[in-house]
Amino acid sequence: MAKDIEYGTDQYAPNKDYQDPPPAPLIDAEELGKWSFYRAIVAEFIATLLFLYITVLTVIGYKSQSDTKHNGDECGGVGILGIAWAFGGMIFVLVYCTAGISGGHINPAVTFGLFLARKISLARAVMYMIAQCLGAICGCGLVKAFQKSYYVNYGGGANELATGYSTGTGLAAEIIGTFVLVYTVFSATDPKRNARDSHVPVLAPLPIGFAVFMVHLATIPITGTGINPARSFGAAVIYGKEKAWDDQWIFWVGPFIGAAIAALYHQYILRAGAVKALGSFRSNA
């Protein structure tokens, strides 16, 4: 009787097309002595700086052009659709540019999800998050330096919970939005999928950018769309007003929960990690 063969799991195919890479060590002392490690950190810093610079400028530009109190047109500017395109488009461009150097995370939530899935070491995860937060602060700082009056008058691109929405609604929006993003990252970069469906080429930055675009369309009216703790933190630090810090915890807790759920879902349900672990346990017993 014919037997279904799945890449990486069939015992009768010793020369299988795909094998899961070993999990990254929790503490990898060797990578601390490699230039590629520090080059990746610099890449994450610069990419997050550029991301915040372009996107916050877009947000402020839209608000200034649509401000009717200062001769603006209520229908002027790029609108919410344009803002969503700016965020999604920049992620597409920057992930494409940095994927081969740092993996193109540009987001502490993505880094956290990949760390939970043992794709990166603890040291790399921590250093990436620090670089991303510093890059976000510098990116927003450049915007304020070049357009200080606009930056202060139009909120500095800071995330905040919109009037009429509860804290629970805002937190749920951030959890679900980040889940969509991190789930897309795992799916688009899954090496098993690339081996199995090599006849269907997938340019990973494209679906990731589209995920960011779609999430922004849905959640800009609720929280301004965080789904990236570094983005929310950098804008709050440079804007510096109390309102930007009131709900800051939502933009950390929500994305980290969403990333954790996405990592567990992909690794232990879609990739059947829990089933394989149980089978291995039974075999050993």
UniProtKB/TrEMBL annotation:
Gene: LOC107782948
Keywords: Membrane, Transmembrane, Transmembrane helix, Transport
GO cellular component, one term: plasma membrane
GO molecular function: water channel activity
Name of the protein in question: Aquaporin PIP2 3a
Cross-referenced Pfam families: MIP
Protein topology in the membrane: Multi-pass membrane protein
Compartmental location: Membrane
